[in-house]
Hints:
Layout: H1 4-7, H2 10-29, H3 40-54, H4 67-106, E1 112-114, E2 121-123, H5 124-139, H6 142-156, H7 166-207, H8 213-250
Antiparallel strand pairs: 1-2
Helix pairs in contact: 2-3, 2-4, 4-5, 4-7, 4-8, 5-8, 7-8
Amino acid sequence: MISWAQVFTESYMVGFILLFFRMAALFIATPIFTHQNIPISIKAAMAFFFAIFFYPSMPDLVIEITVPTIIIAILGEIMFGLAIGLMLLLAYNVITFAGGQISFMMGFSLASAIDPQSGVSMPIISQFLSLLGLMILLAIDMHHWILLFIDSSLSAIPLGGFLMNKNLFDYLMHATGNMFLVGFMIAFPIIALTWLSDIIFGMLMKTMPQFNLLVIGFPIKIMVSFAVIIATLTATMLILKMQMIDAFNALGMFF
């Protein structure tokens, strides 16, 4: 238990600042917490609150208390939070990448809107899958898992002691490739059916020149694509769930 006399010592005050930056980077980079509809002031207040909440379990500071070392330690804590967020975002973005491919095949690539999760413009199918995936993350308590990981990291990674390593870079490269692979796998049923429908429409236009592709073909393609999306939606969310669980388990490399 920390006594009131220890709270105001130089070591514990620097430790609280480093803990605050670790929490702040977490709320900036990780899914759920990084939602653009959450104001920056609310994110800062949440980071400050959780820094106070985890303050009693904060280990003793192991760095020398000088201005250069404190600045380097703050940058290290920011890098730690951003690394966690990047690992989870690469797993989460499989559905947004798949949604972009599906929108392109459906002819919806120009129908884009601002995604409230990332704050960037993306096709509406990607936005739909992103919002649905966000609800899946909340359903499996991913936000609680992240907070519990931060609590465990305090004892495994001292404040100011985070260093980038080769294993992290190797994992990020692998996760980036896996994002494209899994995203294409999710979108493949619709891509295959739209290619098949294009072949069928081409054969119809050769045998029936009066067949109007713009009037008849595109609505049929969109209808078939929506039917496939509905049929594969459960499998898509299960794939997202497994990807997020694998990414969270990979956070153990920090220990």
